[in-house]
Structure formats: structure tokens, C-alpha cells
């Protein structure tokens, strides 16, 4: 099952994105960026930003709302993900999860860390975003723990 799943994901390309998927993805991304920028003003985001300042690297990515502050991609994705989730207005689906808040910060951090000569296109970013959403959704489907989340809360 895992090998088949990996092969399907690996075989995806931008041609698999329909116009409807592209439009919905853009809306999800815009919503996530808006919620994330609002979330940069929260106390929890300030705390993880301060904590993450101890990390540095030759490769860095932007911290949303802080043009003068960059972090290694892993920590930039973490801080930006906290910003998105801190307001709890980011998108959700059933079973309970917030797909874009986990995927978009990682995709953007990695795209910024990509060397200039290998920069990805906007369509590549949309593909990566959708692959991340798809992987998350399928992992939820595979999980017996995720099936009863609404009943537990």
C-alpha cells in the first residue's frame, strides 16, 4: 500500500491540476496567507519567533510579517505554521484537520530555499501544495485514530 501510494504521489505533475483545482488552491493559499499574517501578532507566534532566533543557516526562508528576519526553512515553516494556526481561522475539513496551515508554510519555506538557478514556477508551487494536501488527506483516511476524532471531542 505504501509503495503504491508513493508511486501515485511521485507520478503527479502540473498537468493533473484542473482549472477548478487551481482556482480553489489559489483561494486556499490566499486565505491561509491572510490568516497567517494576522496570526503573526499573537502572543504564541511572538514566543516561537523569539525561541527560533537561536537557529541560523546559510539557507534561509522568510518569516511572514518580518521582512528583516529569516530562519532555516524548517524553523520558518514552523513559525509561519504557528502563525496560521494561532488564530484558528484557517481552513478545516472532516475528519478534523487544518490542511493548508500545515502544508503552505512548508511549501513556501522550501521554495524560498531552492537555489536561484532551480527556482520553481507558480504552477510547481500549486502542485506541491496540492500534493501536500492530498498526502495529508490520504494519511487521515488510512488512520484508524483519525476516524473517531469528532466523537472524542
Mean pLDDT value: 88
Principal-axis shape? globular
Specify Rg, calculated over alpha carbons. 16 Å
Identify the CATH class.
Answer: Mainly Alpha
CATH superfamily label:
2-methylcitrate dehydratase PrpD
What fold name goes in the CATH topology slot?
Answer: 2-methylcitrate dehydratase PrpD
GO molecular function: aconitate decarboxylase activity
Protein name: IRG1 decarboxylase
GO biological process, one term: defense response
Family: Belongs to the PrpD family.
Can you put this structure into words, describing what you see?
Residues 4-147 form the MmgE/PrpD N-terminal domain. Belongs to the PrpD family. It comes from Psilopogon haemacephalus (coppersmith barbet). This is IRG1 decarboxylase. GO terms for molecular function: aconitate decarboxylase activity. It is a single chain. The protein is mostly helical and 153 residues long. The protein has a single domain, classed as 2-methylcitrate dehydratase PrpD (Orthogonal Bundle), CATH 1.10.4100. It has helices at residues 2-10, 19-39, 43-52, 73-86, 99-113, 122-142, 149-152; strands spanning 61-63, 66-71. The chain has a two-stranded antiparallel sheet with strand order 1-2. Strand 1 (61-63) and strand 2 form a beta hairpin. Helix 2 packs across helix 4 (73-86). The longest helix is centred in the N-terminal third of the chain and has 21 residues, at 19-39. The protein is globular and about 40 Å long. The protein starts with a helix and ends with a helix. The mean pLDDT is 88.
Amino acid at each position: 500500500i505504501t509503495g503504491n501510494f508513493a508511486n501515485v504521489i511521485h507520478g503527479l505533475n502540473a498537468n493533473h491540476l484542473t482549472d477548478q483545482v487551481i482556482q480553489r488552491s489559489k483561494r486556499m493559499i490566499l486565505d491561509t496567507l491572510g490568516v497567517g499574517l494576522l496570526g503573526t501578532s499573537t502572543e504564541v507566534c511572538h514566543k516561537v519567533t523569539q525561541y527560533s532566533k537561536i537557529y541560523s543557516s546559510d539557507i534561509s526562508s522568510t518569516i511572514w510579517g518580518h521582512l528583516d528576519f529569516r530562519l532555516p526553512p524548517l524553523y520558518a515553516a514552523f513559525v509561519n505554521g504557528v502563525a496560521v494556526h494561532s488564530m484558528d481561522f484557517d481552513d478545516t475539513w472532516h475528519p478534523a484537520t487544518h490542511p493548508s496551515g500545515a502544508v503552505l508554510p512548508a511549501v513556501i519555506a522550501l521554495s524560498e530555499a531552492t537555489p536561484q538557478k532551480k527556482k520553481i514556477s507558480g504552477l510547481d508551487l500549486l502542485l506541491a501544495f496540492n500534493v501536500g494536501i492530498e498526502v495529508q488527506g490520504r494519511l487521515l483516511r488510512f488512520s484508524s485514530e483519525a476516524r473517531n476524532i469528532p466523537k472524542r471531542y
